[in-house]
Design goal:
The complex is a heterodimer of chains A (309) and B (619). With 309 residues, chain A is an all-alpha fold. Chain A is 70% helix and 0% strand. In chain B, a hairpin with a 2-residue loop joins strand 14 (348-353) and strand 15 (356-357). The chains are: A mainly alpha (309), B alpha/beta (619).
């Protein structure tokens, strides 16, 4: 393989073939992912839900907390006694279920995305720095990570949210605290592997600073694998947020989060099943879409890495 | 040939996963007589290793045997049942590979593992008897303190020792044939020469036949009876060693032989020692530089040991010359390189760059120094970021050290690419798919785009095969001529050093033991270690230094516990009691070189008559 090139000393190399080999790993994985039907389905579903959550603010001007006792326990459309003004029916206080569910979706999106992004950024920054610099700083940062990981997330949540009134920001903070160590550990491993590479030494000899090497050279190699973890984490964050609300330690009623609505509707499950079930369906679809995308990404990655051998 | 130990006929192996490709082995046939030493040589990728493994019935998917037969003493290997195959591998054919560290289970003592293998192939032998047998063989392969070493874990073994143990492992079942695939490749020259001598000795004593697979012709030239040359999966030529080496019949073998390293047959590049250049002020001056590492003790929870990686290195590099620093692994070359590039600071001593002490530089001055002193690394794959385009990699130097705009920068990078022989059209391409030689050119471009005055080459050529090496060496000659760059080569490859360096410094255990012009160091070595290195160097020509007389035994002492006197005394063939007592200092020789030895090989060459100068050792 090498001989055909090297027999022409100092001459121009043979014309580079525009094959998929030339593309960076990330791009190849992305290409393979994009063509997977499962990914398209998941992305479509996710996009639809996100759109609904965003648009609802402007389109549905119905106040999700407006009570309407005349119309309480209105079933969703296509069932007996439905009211077209409330496509998904109303709850025990006559509040519109559709707008409640959409606002709940919004909050779930906001908290899930923000918490994932923040954990990703904080965890990766700590992990990259610790892994790359090594030595005492690495030891110190990783012990902090260990301590953080040794605290069960639910205990952390009960403690923090029990001491202060739960706001979206506080819930995000709890989720980030519980998750960033995972990212720190994973990225540290990546940075550690890159640190010993010759190209890092070459950059050091050129006089590049640590930060420059980390950001320009190490991060593009060490971070993409984290993105896979992040897709699944997004789903985990959303569930955790709903669980907190459901248990009553997260955001409090009347804020209509999916967890709060489901907890509320539990009491009326026999008479008005839709109050608990419909937000649950939204949540399920959201998680399904995320897992479909995550799985498609993982499969594509496996296929690409297998193929590279 | 009446008697055959191994007979291979029409053996073909193909890659089932790539049906369109040419077969990996294409109708290979040869025989091995009992006690014969056969060498299989060929360029990398010729199918040698696959052949070696196929002989043991060891072809893993997707490789499949598509035809032919291998018979060992009349027994067919390829179609043997698993039971029979196990017996053949245990008692018929032994195999030693290039990476012996992976042969052994890291959690069990070496001797015990080998004894277990012996018991598996010789049922009814007790563990005690088996260990006794291992001990016998350990002595035979000259592992010192065999009884003690047998009980040690593989991690305690050095490269040469574990290779010896792997040989014992291959021969324990009284095998009649041992296949040695590239066994000397990871070893230092002096250790590799010892291993070859060991093979010779084993053959004489036990009458074992050997198949020696290698891409290096010099390794086997004194050892093999017969050579088989492979090229692209086929045997292109075979014949008695001497005859084949002197008059190769085919192009493939001719090329292999022509590209084999030569030391004495080549001429050194123009020596600077006679010219004025040595009288100019040094470009880089290293004085009594030391670097000691504190390493935590592995066997205890607390405490640490001190590894003296560089112990007072002393030399000057003159503008425009090319100095080579040679030595075996662990001699402190890499540490010295890190000190020169200022990735680490010396504990003691000073590095002067054009007369200015680098240790006193401000941060800014050191940063500016980096544009002046650049490094070309060894590994053509790891040294280039895979996710950057080639242009980005090379332009990083300019981004850091100049304020050129995007267009000017690109123009400069493209000009440099053209200068080192890279197609500027590759600017926006990723480096994947480029050959090692092309990648090294990227490395060179990255270093010279800043127009440095001093270039450090850390084993830059060793990862390249000879076909790629030659044009790159030519490139360096041109660059050096045109740009008047001072080059410092760090290398273990003596043949290469002979071709490129004007002066040579020999390093042993963290210290320069001899430095002088290329002609003098290769032609009239004064230090016994230099002579030992030269005698061990694998070259195709007859060495003027008889390995039997000059070759050293054993391995360098550990840099943790250094002897009191000369560090080389224990291995030195000409050492005297004084050598164990006092450490020799570097002294000037008449030929403008320097040497650290109490009893140099030619006494008259020393400038002063003093023979006993002591360096106070820093404890």
């Amino acid at each position: 393989m090498t001989s055909d090139i090297s027999t022409a000393p100092l001459a121009a190399p043979k014309p580079a073939l525009p094959s998929t080999r030339e593309l960076a790993m990330g791009k190849r994985i992305w290409l393979a992912t994009r063509s997977s039907p499962w990914f398209l389905l998941g992305a479509g579903l996710f996009g639809l839900l996100l759109l609904m959550a965003l648009v609802s603010v402007f389109v549905f001007q119905v106040d999700p907390t407006k009570m309407n006792f005349v119309d309480k326990f209105t079933p969703p459309i296509f069932s007996e006694g439905a009211n077209p003004a409330f496509p998904l029916g109303t709850d025990q206080l006559g509040r519109d279920m559709l707008s409640r569910a959409l606002v709940g979706l919004q909050i779930t999106f906001l908290i899930g995305l923000a918490a994932t992004a923040l954990s990703f950024v904080i965890g990766s920054a700590v992990g990259l720095y610790a892994g790359f610099v090594g030595g005492k700083i690495d030891q110190l940062l990783m012990r902090v990570v260990d301590i953080q990981m040794s605290i069960p997330p639910i205990i952390l949540a009960i403690t923090i949210l029990g001491l202060a009134r739960a706001t979206p920001a506080l819930v995000i903070a709890v989720l980030v605290l519980a998750t960033w160590p995972n990212y720190a550990r994973l990225t540290r491993a990546g940075a550690l592997a890159e640190r010993g590479q010759e190209y890092v030494r070459a950059a050091r000899v050129l006089g590049a600073s640590d930060i420059r090497i980390i950001l320009l050279m190490v991060a593009p190699v060490a971070l993409p694998p984290m993105a896979f973890a992040a897709v699944f984490d997004l789903a985990r964050m959303m569930i955790f947020e709903c669980v907190l609300d459901f248990l009553g330690i997260g955001l409090q009623p009347p804020t209509p989060t999916l967890g709060v609505i489901i907890a509320d509707g539990r009491k009326y499950l026999i008479n008005a099943w839709w109050i608990a079930v419909l937000p649950g369906v939204f949540l399920m679809l959201l998680l399904l879409s995320l897992n479909m995308m995550g799985t498609a990404l993982e499969r594509a990655r496996n296929a690409v890495f297998e193929g590279a051998k | 040939m009446t008697e055959k130990l191994l007979s291979v006929s029409e053996l073909s192996v193909a890659n089932a996963a790539r049906p369109g490709d040419a077969p990996i082995l294409d109708h290979v046939s040869f025989d091995v007589a009992p006690g014969e030493a056969l060498a299989i040589i060929g360029r990398s990728g010729a199918g040698k290793s696959v052949l070696g493994r196929s002989l043991m019935g060891w072809t893993e998917a997707p490789l499949t045997v598509t035809g032919g037969s291998v018979s060992l003493g009349g027994e067919e290997v390829l179609e043997a049942a698993p039971d029979a195959l196990r017996r053949i591998r245990g008692t018929g054919i032994g195999y030693v590979g290039a990476d012996p560290t992976r042969v052994f289970d890291p959690t069990l003592p070496v001797g015990r593992q080998i004894a277990e293998k012996y018991r598996a192939v010789r049922p009814g032998v007790s563990m005690k008897e088996a260990l006794e047998r291992v001990h016998e063989l350990f002595n035979l392969v000259r592992i010192p303190e065999a009884r003690h070493r047998m009980e040690e874990l593989p991690s305690k073994y050095s490269g040469g020792m574990i290779q010896r143990a792997a040989i014992v492992d291959a021969m324990i079942g009284e095998t009649k044939l041992v296949i040695a695939d590239n066994v000397t490749q990871p070893l230092d020259v002096t250790v590799a020469a010892q291993i070859i001598r060991l093979f010779q000795d084993l053959r004489e004593r036990l009458g074992t036949a050997f198949i020696f697979i290698t891409s290096s012709v010099p390794t086997i030239k004194d050892f093999a009876d017969r050579i088989v040359v492979m090229d692209k999966g086929r045997i292109v030529e075979s014949g008695p060693t001497r005859q084949l080496l002197e008059a190769p019949q085919t192009e493939a073998s001719g090329q292999l032989i022509a590209q084999s390293p030569k030391i004495w047959g080549t001429t050194a590049p123009e020596s600077l020692s006679a010219s004025d250049e040595l009288n100019r002020p040094a470009a880089l001056s290293i004085t009594a530089v030391r670097r000691t590492y504190k390493v935590p003790r592995k066997d205890k929870l607390f405490g640490s040991v001190f590894v003296q990686a560089v112990r007072g290195a002393d030399f000057d590099v003159y503008p425009g010359e090319s100095l080579a620093i040679v030595g075996e692994s662990g001699c402190g070359k890499s540490t010295l390189m890190r000190l020169l590039t200022w990735l680490e600071e010396p504990d003691d001593g000073a590095v002067h760059f054009h007369g200015k002490n680098v240790g006193t530089f401000t941060k800014k001055e050191r940063f500016d120094l980096r544009a002046q002193l650049q490094l070309v690394l060894q590994d053509p794959y790891g040294s280039i970021p895979a996710h950057w385009t080639i242009g980005r990699t090379i332009s990083e130097s300019l981004r850091l050290h100049s304020d050129l705009g995007g267009k000017a920068r690109r123009a400069r990078v493209e000009a440099t690419m053209a200068e080192v022989g890279l197609d500027p059209a590759l600017y926006d391409k990723l480096p994947s798919g480029l050959s090692a030689g092309q990648r090294q050119r990227i490395n060179v471009a990255r270093a010279i785009v800043l127009e440095p005055t001093v270039l450090l080459l850390d084993e830059t050529f060793s990862a390249l095969d000879p076909m790629e090496q030659t044009p790159l060496i030519e490139l360096f000659r041109t660059l050096q001529r045109e740009r008047a760059i001072t080059c410092i080569f760090i290398s273990h490859d003596l043949a290469l050093v002979r071709r490129v360096a004007s002066r040579v410094a020999v390093m042993y255990l963290g210290r320069i033991v001899e430095i002088g012009s290329n002609e003098n160091v290769f032609g009239r070595p004064l230090h016994p270690y230099t002579r030992a290195l030269l005698s061990a160097a694998p070259t195709i020509e007859a060495s003027p230094y008889d390995p039997g007389e000059c070759l050293v035994d054993g391995e360098p002492p550990s840099p943790i516990r250094l002897p009191k006197g000369c560090a080389f005394a224990e291995r030195c063939p000409v050492s005297r009691p004084e050598c164990l007592e006092s450490d020799p200092m570097l002294r000037n020789t008449l030929a403008r070189g320097r040497i650290a030895c109490h009893f140099p090989l030619a006494r008259g060459m020393l400038e002063s008559a003093e023979t006993k100068e002591e360096i106070s050792r820093v404890g």
